[in-house]
Design brief:
single chain; 178 residues; alpha+beta; three-stranded antiparallel β-sheet; 6 helices
Length: 178
């Protein structure tokens, strides 16, 4: 029954993300290549909580984040209206989906908790929600760093990967991304 449940879950996730199960099965992590993908909307003013969270998740999965300018930045340096920015992630193709799904999940939780907490305490100042979001993102970032360090010391018991295997995989993926 567990195998049937797992197969059904894989099928459901593949349909959600418009990926065929054969694409997943043929994946070879040794041949993984780096990809750059945009995360979030184009912005003129940065959302610190979003940036902290995306950066933390990308780092956990051996990726990097950059802020890319759109529009003609060089020609219109003096005017903020002539260009916008967008957060982009550089990661291996195999980690892109993990980064997107995990970040989406954490952002959803962060928004729900910030709204709930503000509703429970309506006398808080207006900026409280943004401060709550930044604090949440910073705590998650610290926890993801701790988890990665722990995995590199002790391995991943859930997948029976030893620490040296984890370190080698992380190093290989970081090298590809760089």
């Amino acid at each position: 029954n567990e195998a049937a449940n797992a197969a059904a879950l894989v099928e459901k996730i593949c349909q959600e993300w418009d990926v065929s199960p054969s694409d997943v099965e043929d994946y070879d992590p040794e041949q993984d290549e780096a990809v750059i993908f945009a995360y979030g909307r184009i912005f003129s003013k940065q959302d610190p909580a979003l940036t902290i969270l995306v950066n933390a998740v990308a780092n956990y999965f051996n990726g990097k984040t950059i802020i890319s300018y759109t529009g003609n930045y060089r020609q219109n340096r003096g005017s903020n209206r002539s260009y916008r920015k967008q957060l982009k992630v550089v990661a291996t193709a195999g980690n892109q989906l993990q980064i997107e799904i995990y970040t989406d999940y954490l952002l959803e939780i962060m928004e729900k908790l910030s709204v709930k907490h503000k509703q429970e305490t309506p006398d808080l100042p207006l900026q409280y929600k943004n401060n709550f979001r930044k604090g949440f993102a910073s705590r998650i970032a610290a926890r993801l760093r701790e988890m990665k360090e722990q995995q590199e010391k002790e391995g991943r018991p859930e997948t029976q990967e030893e620490a040296l295997v984890v370190i080698n995989k992380n190093t290989s993926q970081q090298k590809t991304v760089n």
